[in-house]
Amino acid sequence: MTAYTDSFAARGPAMRAAGYWIDKTMDEFLVESMRQVPDKTAIVAHRVDRSASRRFTYRELGGMVARCAGALREMGVVPGDVVSVQLPNWWEFVVTAFACGRIGAVVNPLMPIFRERELRYMLDFAQSKVLIVPQMYRGFDHAAMARGLRLELPNLRHIVVVDGDAQHSFDGRMLQCATPVTPSLDPASAALQPDDVSVMVFTSGTTGDPKGVMHSSNTLLACLNALRGRFGLSPDDVLLCATPVGHMTGYAAVMMLAVRLGGTMVLQDVWDGARGVALMAEEGVTYTAASTPFLTDICDTVAAGAPRPQRLRAFLCGGAPIPPTLIERAARELNLAVCSLWGMTEALSGTLTEPQRAAEKSSTTDGRPLEGMEVLVADADGQSLPAGQTGRLLVRGAQVFLGYFKRPDLPAYDADGWFDTGDLAYMDAEGYIRINGRTKDVLIRGGENVPVFEIESLLVAHPAVAAAAVVGYPDRRLGERACAFVVLKPGARFDLAALQAHMAQSQVAKQYWPERVRVVEELPRTPTGKIQKFRLREIAASETPAS
Fold first, then answer.
1. Which domains, and CATH codes, for the chain?
2. In angstroms, rounded to a whole number, what is the distance separating the alpha carbons of residues 528 and 206?
């Protein structure tokens, strides 16, 4: 499996000349640590169902990778084949990911919360040859689900089960290989080359079927090197991986980053604030990356009397705006710099606030471009907008993906190499951006663009509303009207009259007021928690009388 877009190849010379693409693979960094610090701890693996953590040195990790690579090769996996891994933050995931790289296969991380509906589509579309799952995780029988799916998927030849029976277990099937695959002595002859697809991650499917986002070693390492520089990380750092490795934050910004550094990763498979803080203190964790709920839990746990993790100094936080009070609290109670980030599967870590300015910028911005990345806030014609004006967020540079798997009809970039992120943003005078909506959320009512993100934020501020989403539905005269879907707090009431009173009190222009309110028990979401607005649009449209 190689790059699909001419634009990807076209940016190569500039990226290499500037030093952002270093033409190495992650296997080279693993081998380097095996040679230089073979007895250093590479992985501390904590499982909620185990009484003690397991530890692996770089020598031990390298040996397992070689045997796992040999096992995959014996299964008939060849360069370009897809190996799907639906595991929590377990050491077996790490071994498999590096084994895939050793033989040129493409690793396809899958979130453990995916079930038959999502997996059936993803495994079939990717033509996955191998699927690795846990026997049981959080009370769910993944092995039974996988066996059922295999009957429907002719390309899926092998199911490997962590903690399964001897015949199909990870230890028995992947680590007992008699013909391990050792690293290539000459990187130029390695099975995986720096511009080949090394990892494919499916998007969340907020607008329809998920898309397979392809990254190479060069785009991935551009991300890791940029994070390393912005945070000042070194081999002495210990990284906590509590956010799922099935998501790019856990996969790239923690798991792969730890090996790139030659540092130590601490894997926590089920997030629990008390245990997470204890692991940080016990293992001397210095850095982690996760969303705001994790940070809140850490602060609450320390406030309740748990020992403060003394070495923790940096927290990469993305996915949603960070409340200013939480940033202040983390600095005051943990002596911790919380750095806001904007990223996406297609562009990895696009912008980040540096630790030195976290207290000042993280609550009001999503950071400035990382090294090797450019962002542009543009109008509908692609022209740059002045500071403070909202427009489409475009991105280009070293971390931007290769393209979408088997979707040449979805161009990755425009003629100048810009990728339209689908986000709306504005930029301040110093080049820091702030996300304030999605282009697909734009609702045009009678020629007026309704600021959907702002209306949703106002709705959530109402004391009766727990969650809200605003979508358009067709109208013959105005083109579109707005429908607000709301989830209420326990015992609360909310209707159109309440909405109108709230909008009036908030001094919102009447043309922005939703004309319908629909109270629902929950909003449809992807497995990663994003609201599937296309489903809400379908509901709103179906309830619209034909004109």
1. 1-17+216-439 (3.40.50.12780), 25-38+52-193 (3.40.50.980), 442-542 (3.30.300.30)
2. 10
Residues, the chain, total? Answer: 547
Q: pTM for the full model?
A: 0.86
User: CA 511 to CA 467: how far, in whole Å?
Assistant: 22
Quickly list H helices, 335-387.
Answer: 358-361
| Alpha carbon distances (Å) from 238 to 266, 274, 284, 394, 457 | 7, 18, 7, 34, 37
Indicate if the pLDDT at residue 329 is higher than 90: yes
Taking only Cα atoms into account, the Rg of the chain, rounded to an integer number of angstroms, comes to 24
Tell which phi-psi region holds residue 163, choosing left (phi > 0), alpha (psi between -120 and 50) or beta. Answer: left
Q: Tokens 């490997």 map to which residue?
A: 160
437, containing H or E segment? strand 433-438
Band of residue 3 on the pLDDT scale cut at 50, 70, 90? very low
Asked if 415 contacts 10 with a C-beta cutoff of 8 angstroms, the reply is: no
Average pLDDT over residues 32-46: 98
**What stretch of H or E contains 93?**
helix 91-103
Contact 132, 105 (CB under 8 A): no
Residue 86's closest CA among 208, 202, 259, 230?
A: 202
CA–CA distance, 84 with 470 (Å, rounded to integer): 35
